[in-house]
Amino acid sequence: VQLQASGGGLVQPGGSLGLSCAASGSIFSIGAMGWYRQAPGKQRELVAGFTTDGRMYYADSVKGRFTLSRDNANNTLYLQMNSLKPEDTAIYSCNMIMGALSVWGKGTQVTVSS
Questions:
Q1: E strands along 1-114, which residues?
Q2: Nearest-CA neighbor of 86 among 58, 111, 109, 60?
Q3: CA dist list (Å): 93 to 14, 88, 114
Q4: Is residue 35 within 8 Å of 92, Cβ to Cβ?
Q5: How do residues 36-84 score in pLDDT, each as one tens digit?
């Protein structure tokens, strides 16, 4: 199983970016899934995610600005990021739980700078 993340880049403060994370391979029983980020010198944090029973979670720092969604038919997770701030700069990684497996995608850099 592989997760392919895409959509990062450089954007000015106040701008928007969309991330996607597509699962491929022997996919089975996807449970919880989410987007994490890690800024330089900081610990990785959960930005937004779906719990196993489908509830959504957002970190307080992104509530009202980021929107999480998914396409179950295509095993894809999305994160729409609006009103971006310099403090959103980080490497964003997606994660999906499949049974006993915790699968990570390669991170994608998001830089918010003028």
A1: 2-6, 9-11, 17-24, 30-38, 45-50, 56-58, 66-71, 76-81, 90-98, 101-104, 108-112
A2: 111
A3: 22, 13, 23
A4: yes
A5: 999 999 999 999 999 999 899 999 999 999 999 999 999 999 999 999 9
